[in-house]
Amino acid sequence: MSDRREHDTDVPGLRPEWTEALVRGWRGEGPSLWLTRFVVLRMLGLVYLVAFLVAANQVVPLIGSRGLTPISLYLPAVEHHFGSFSAAFFNLPSLFWFAHSDGVLLGAMWLGVVLSAAVLCGYANSIVLSILWLLYLSLIHVGQRWYGYGWEMQLCETGFLAIFLVPLLDGRPFPRRPPPTPVIWLFRWLIVRIMLGAGLIKLRGDACWTELTCLYFHFETQPIPGPLTPYFNALPHWALAGGVLFNHFAELVAPLFVFAPRRRLRHAAGAVMLALQVTLILSGNLAFLNWLTIVPILACFDDTLWRRLLPGALVRASERARERAQASRGQGRAVAGVFGVVGLLSIFPVSNLLSSRQAMNRSFEPLGLVNTYGAFGSVGRKRYEIVFEGTRDAKPDARTKWTAYAFKCKPGDPTRRPCWITPYHLRLDWQIWFAAMGQPYQHPWTVHFVDKLLEGDEKTLSLLADNPFPDGPPRTIRAELYRYELSPPGAATVWTRQRVSEWLPPLSKGDPRLTRFLEMNGW
């Protein structure tokens, strides 16, 4: 009888000590997670703040009423595609179906900035986090190519889980309700899928990851290099090969220990994954992707570690909150519900991970609650850049002097040092990087971009580093394609470049080719 009582809560297929840890954790009797919740929410608040600041500064010139890809043209096209408003709304749910003027877009984004700042400063309850989640979900569903990156839905999934990490109303840094351990487990499940997805897509996507040569090219060809990128790029090949091995270890081995019953294994796994994200932050500008990925990594650590790292005042405040904590049946039912929903919706992402045709960065339902992720499944071997140039000459000829437009951070002038902008995201700079790998017909917005420059449109110019034509817009603009290569550290120029070909022919206002193209696209 004693044996039966001892193991009557065992979960089939799990070792008894794992079962005990599982049951105790579900009951909230495991390691303290008060400081873990505090740190996770502060980091999420920082990422949300950056994401909404990016939107507040760029959303109008990108998708506003006179933006490069106006939302007023996009939504009717989506409705036509799905056949009805209700079907379109179901597939791409967004508040901006009902109102999307420039004022509404800006108001929503600045509301997000304010609420994100509140979360960063310590005020976070379910209502605040629900509003943030809904606002950002609404934005990415109408953001078109500008919001087509994997970390957009990753932020939504992370933000959705955070709704259930806090009480409904009490927004204090250490509220009366204890942190629900199952939600912390869901954060750990998220980082497992993120890392395994990134690791497996690399093995399946590009031979250089198995040949250990991808880092020979990655630093030079990544979207926006940073100040330290030339130094990473100049490392000896044995060190770069070792970096690929470490990447594989962090993405394919460390995640397997996130749910280990021994605390030291969990902490070690979190430390390895965290080290990879910090390295990526130092070596380039991948927007807020790595900062966001750190959020669920932080959930791998419990208070035994945070007590050693955080200020004593915070530790004492968490201990006082733990002593007076009171569980909530309502919160418990909500946590159980979201735990079941995530478990059910994980079927498709897990199937995708196991598939030889693994998809990278994909949602399986309209709300994107449980997604599949992956990064750099393939690595470019050469870096190409599009240089937009203008002139005020009435009839350009071989003697014409062309003046280049400078983007805020992407390579242009070979002598300009790379900037450090992470976690901020320059969405136009990123899209130009993608465009350089294709042809103009694959990126029709670039022609609209040229038209905006010919008009001297102030909102479009706000996306650039400066206006090289302050006395009036140019009469003609062209786009040239260049091959860029990083120079060794200490060289006279950061980059060397060589012209490859014309990317867009010279275009001017009144050019029938430009007029016809704009009319075809409703611009």
Short description:
With 523 residues, the chain is α+β, with helices and mostly antiparallel strands. The protein has 23 helices and four strands.
Note down, in words, how this protein is organized.
- The structure is a single chain.
- With about 525 residues, this protein is α+β, with helices and mostly antiparallel strands.
- About 55% of the residues lie in helices and about 5% in strands.
- The protein has 23 helices and four strands.
- Helix 3 packs antiparallel against helix 6 (about 100-120) and helix 3 packs across helix 8 (about 150-165).
- The longest helix is centred in the N-terminal third of the chain and has 30 residues, at about 35-65.
- Mean pLDDT is about 95; it is low at about 1-10.
Helices and strands, in N-to-C order? HHHHHHHHHHHHHHHHHHHEEHHHEEH
Total number of strands: 4
State the distance separating the first and last CA atoms. Answer: 79 Å
Strand order, largest beta sheet: 2-1-3-4
* Biggest sheet layout: 4 strands, antiparallel
